[in-house]
Amino acid sequence: MNLVSVEEEGVFRRLMEAYFGCYLRRDLVGLRALHVTDGDFVHFDHEFDRDSLGLADFLKKAKRGFDQNRAGRIDFAPVEASDFRAYADDGAGLMIATIRKPHLSNVVLRASFVLRKERGAWRFRHVHFSQDPNSLAELAVAS
Questions:
Q1: What do you get for the CA distance between the two ends of the chain, in Å?
Q2: Which of 31, 7, 9, 1 lies closest to 84 in space, CA to CA?
Q3: How far is Cα 104 from Cα 126, in angstroms, rounded to an integer?
């Protein structure tokens, strides 16, 4: 896989923005449309009880999160992405970034998105979020 060109990078950035935008709009249909059509999807999350093996399980947990958001128990808000890189070949892609959640005391996550190209469109095959151990160490020193 090769680092994408500057022009292609915009396509991948917009795909990541669309992913987070679905959460902001609580758009389950839009979220489904961004994922592989065969349902073979894996999601690892930094939040408790949010990992999913399979698209159906992921969408069920996303709906639960949307419902909790409406009840005020979860706060979806815009995120900031930095250190963005995208790699691709003919049918597979990878995006990596550092994600900051300013609304949650600047929580910093590492994010990786594995993509598959289906009928000309990039779709998510695997999404992984984890706590950045470097930011956890910084928080420990600061406190």
A1: 41
A2: 9
A3: 24
DSSP secondary structure letter of residue 105: T
pLDDT in tens, 85-124: 999 998 999 999 999 877 666 678 999 999 999 999 999 9
Using an 8 Å Cβ cutoff, are 57 and 50 in contact? no
Contacts 24+ apart (CB under 8 A), 84-87: 84/9, 84/13, 84/16, 85/3, 86/3, 86/4, 86/8, 86/9, 86/12, 86/13, 87/1, 87/2, 87/3, 87/4
Give SS3 for 104.
helix
Positive or negative: CA dihedral 18, 109, 112, 33: negative
Name the β-bridge partners of 35. 124
Q: How far is CA 20 from CA 15, 43, 63, 97, 119, in A?
A: 9, 14, 14, 13, 23
